[in-house]
Design goal:
This protein is α/β, with parallel strands linked by helices and 370 residues long. The protein contains 12 helices and 11 strands. Strands 1-2-9-6-5-3-4 form a 7-stranded mixed sheet. The protein has a two-stranded antiparallel sheet with strand order 7-8.
């Protein structure tokens, strides 16, 4: 059954729909085409995903508007693709094909494809429209919603980016059938994150229904994705450009991005790094935000239900982590900003000195929380 969320922003022209349901690609549910006036759509995907879904997407577009020229820009899969070099190659292709400002980009894939496509759309001719068709759980519940776009720099993740909202987000839950278990688990980290920081009742629902989710129960998955997107939409509506409350969505990400960067992009999945980051942030919350230790334990237990890591990699030392954290784009002045939780559903943002975080990491046991 189709579920729809309308994300309404202060900049009215940025409003868009998030459509969630089974078989949306097959049923040609592409309402963005009703107002599309261009002649070309470039579908950006990776080699694996394009083999599964590109022809279906192309057929869906051509069924509605046969005159549109649909082209595929296929990329190598992996975080290393989210680079300046790949961005430049896509721009070269668009220019060569005389892509115009009223044409459209369509991101078909996971978070890497979505971030890269969105950033390209934000930059090309000072902004063209793009549509998100996420195929991974992480992209469905997090990166496709909210308009954050970025590419990586060798010194840090997402250091080069822009806010550019999609024209529409189309979430076909059937795409999860082809998703590897490790990628599904990585997506669950972002689901758990939004529940931990913003909705205690949703966190409790996840605790009660984790077996159904692991078994890919269709109605449970659809509800979970709808709830996650609805919560994120509420936060984004309050603070589109991350000047205030939206920063709470970075719970676990300051530690997580450092782990990703130091491990080498692609060696650790984003959701896996965020899972460990949330455990570290929750541990820090015990002393700095008076979070009850039992909440940290529940968080770790829930992450483990979905086979997510909860321990800091043994090969990383505190100085490496600190240096990477200092590059985090949320930081101000000389401190490090962290998102902590006071209780389930309530997050705060605090700034800490490098020494305070060093002391915490020194005392943190690499076995993680139990």
């Amino acid at each position: 059954m189709l579920k729809q969320i309308k994300l309404s922003l202060e900049r009215k022209k940025s409003n868009y729909d998030i459509c969630i349901g089974s078989g949306l690609i097959q049923s040609h549910s592409f309402s963005f085409l009703e107002s599309f006036t261009g002649s070309q759509i470039a579908v950006i995907s990776n080699h694996e995903i394009s083999k599964l879904y590109y022809e279906k997407v192309k057929l869906a577009i051509e069924k509605i508007k046969p005159c549109i020229e649909v082209q595929l820009i296929s990329l190598t899969a992996g975080e290393s693709t989210k680079s300046i070099d790949t961005f430049s190659e896509i721009l070269d292709t668009l220019v060569r094909n005389k892509f115009k400002r009223n044409d459209l980009l369509l991101a078909l894939g996971g978070g890497v494809v979505g971030d890269l496509t969105g950033f390209t759309a934000a930059c090309y001719q000072r902004g063209v429209d793009f549509v998100q068709v996420p195929t991974t759980l992480l992209a469905m519940v997090d990166s496709s919603v909210g308009g954050k776009t970025a590419i990586n720099h060798s010194k840090g993740k997402n250091l080069i980016g822009a806010f550019h909202q999609p024209a529409e987000v189309i979430i076909d839950t059937d795409c999860l059938k082809s998703l590897p278990d490790s990628e599904f688990s990585a997506g669950m980290a972002e689901v758990i994150k939004i529940a931990a920081i913003y909705d205690e009742s949703f966190f409790e629902w996840l605790e009660l229904n984790y077996r159904k989710i692991c078994n890919k129960d269709a109605s449970s998955l659809e509800y979970m994705i709808f709830r996650s997107c609805s919560l994120k939409a509420k936060v984004v509506e309050k603070d589109e450009l991350e000047q205030g409350i939206r920063a709470i969505l970075n719970f676990g990400h300051t530690f997580g991005h450092a782990i990703e960067n130091l491990s080498g992009y692609g060696e650790v999945l984003h959701g896996e790094a965020v899972a460990v980051g949330m455990v570290l942030a929750a541990g820090f919350s015990n002393s700095e935000a008076k979070l009850e230790p039992s909440i940290s334990s529940r968080l770790v237990k829930l992450l483990k239900h979905f086979n997510l890591p909860t321990k800091l990699p043994a090969n990383l030392n505190q100085e490496q982590i600190l240096d990477a954290m200092l590059l985090d784009k949320k930081n101000k002045d000389k401190g490090i900003r962290l998102v902590l939780i006071e209780k389930l559903g309530t997050a705060i943002i605090k700034e800490f000195s490098k020494n305070a975080i060093r002391d915490y990491l020194l005392n943190y046991k690499t076995k993680g929380e139990n």
